[in-house]
Write a structure and sequence with these properties.
Keywords: Membrane, Transmembrane, Transmembrane helix. This is Prepilin-type N-terminal cleavage/methylation domain-containing protein. With about 180 residues, the protein is of the alpha+beta class. The chain has a domain of about 130 residues. It contains one helix and eleven strands. Strands 1-2-3-4-5 form a five-stranded antiparallel β-sheet, covered by helices on one side. A hairpin with a 5-residue loop joins β6 and β7.
Amino acid sequence: MADDGYTLAEALAAVTVVGLAIGGMSLAVTTIAGQQRRIETAHRGLDAQGAADLTLQRLLDGQGPFGRASDPSFSGSASALTFACGAATCRARIEEGRRGSVLVVAKAGAPVERRPLTMASARFAYVGEAGETLARWPAGGGRLRAVMIRRGGAGRPVAHARLDVDEGRDCQFDAVIGECRETAP
């Protein structure tokens, strides 16, 4: 008899090796898919935080300075803030939803924006002139420096917006004298 092919043992060994290789590849693909899901979830969370941060910064851009307890133009609590922006009133609030907190922003002349925060129990916090973090504003004393959204009120900041606190809204800065000029009526 001639040796023209594989024996049964060789064929079974080849099929076993191919089966092990395919099994190993499918395990690797499953592991990579799991890692990709975790990365995608983290990316979505960072995306939502970035959108909330940008929305809060746009709301407060060009506003301020807000300060002193006698200044009624800005009022903030842990769940909402309100301030005068021109002739209208701008507002932001945090609502609790089924999938976590939602930042709702209403700015004069613009549609209401809703930004998911991908966490439960987010709260506003206010940074005063000395860098202290407060749950309510006005707190008396100095000017408001920044507004933050924090996880659970005392957790790490999720969104942060600095205020233009050095000069008033109607300031026309003069580079020569180094301060605001009076505007002519």
